[in-house]
Amino acid sequence: MKIAFFSSKPYDKTFFEAENKNYGFELNFYETHLGPHIVNAIEDEQAVCVFVNDKVNRQVIEILAKKGVKIIALRCAGFNNVDLEAAKEFGIKVCRVPAYSPEAVAEHTMAMLLTLNRKTHKAYNRVREQNFALNGLLGFNLFQKTIGIVGTGKIGKAFINIAKGFGCKIIAYDLYPDQELMNNGVEYVELDKLFKSSDIISLHCPLTPENHYMINQETIAMMKDGVTIINTSRGGLINTHEAIESLKNHKIGYLGIDVYEQEEKLFFKDLSAEIIQDDMIQRLMSFPNVLVTAHQAFFTQEALEQISEITMRSISEIKEKGSTDEVVML
Ligand code: NAD
């Protein structure tokens, strides 16, 4: 069995080759993303392994099917970048890694929040310049603040556990409220109420056609002045242009994003010698109260071990038995 990896980085090779000692598949790693320009390179691979910014649309799927590919394995949780209908039509199984160390993402969410509320990113640079003044570094306590969690699945839940340790009040919105969380004092509210009542809003739901741009000028207008918004979920949940306007007029007090709606042109690449053409990201990075990380919330040793383990097991099970628990159903 041959597997072609797209958007692969040295760390993907390290973790997947280690895991492959249990399987003995032939792994081919391509740095480029999967797209019509590369599918011709596929010879007799039966599986492709892709990541968050590989656009696996109908055109790509049709070519993959012609090449004999039977499995699209996402080495991530989200699957908004794959045309599942087309995959079904062409008889290709799509699997993902629904759960891998939700704590990795939850802990990064708290890291972003703590960076913003205590301005450690500014303090780090300042002290290195021998500037030991505190002016401009005034923070705020998390203790007794209200955090609104949108999406209380695995990551949302892990983040709630952490935030509770800081003495925060938790309110939440989810299409399917979690009884265990309710028993433990989490109050579910309507989305509008969450926007109105939260000091801090953290997004942990998947991106779907229904919630695209859920953070926009109308919903931001409902929020408290100086609200903090953290997005470690998917970039398309926030209308970036409208968020920038709300940062300019101080409505948004702090913004932390690990994901960005146009991230596929930027993230996971070293562009330090390039001229960035994306004016929105440049404007975002110019704000002192905005923190951008490049989709690194998942990036821990533990998470990468689990991702490679689950992905390889799923591919193997689909090959042997035709399916696996991690197959994405329509
Ligand atoms: P999950 O499936 O366990 O939980 C998602 C929750 O969101 C579910 O409870 C679901 O009912 C809820 N939900 C679905 N649609 C909703 C909506 N419109 N409004 C409110 N809630 C809604 O998923 P998870 O493992 O907790 O992951 C959450 C998201 O985090 C993923 O979809 C992915 O986009 C993102 N993620 C980001 C990174 C990263 O590195 N930044 C890594 C992994 C996952």
Give the structure's gist in a few sentences.
Belongs to the D-isomer specific 2-hydroxyacid dehydrogenase family. The chain is α/β, with parallel strands linked by helices and 330 residues long. It has helices spanning 10-20, 58-66, 84-89, 102-118, 120-128, 154-165, 179-183, 191-197, 217-222, 240-248, 279-286, 301-321; strands at 2-5, 26-29, 47-50, 71-74, 93-95, 146-150, 169-173, 187-188, 200-203, 227-231, 252-257, 290-292.
Descriptive tags:
Rossmann fold; binds nicotinamide-adenine-dinucleotide; 12 strands; 5-stranded parallel beta sheet; 2-hydroxyacid dehydrogenase; alpha/beta; oxidoreductase; 12 helices; 330 residues; 15% strand; 2 domains
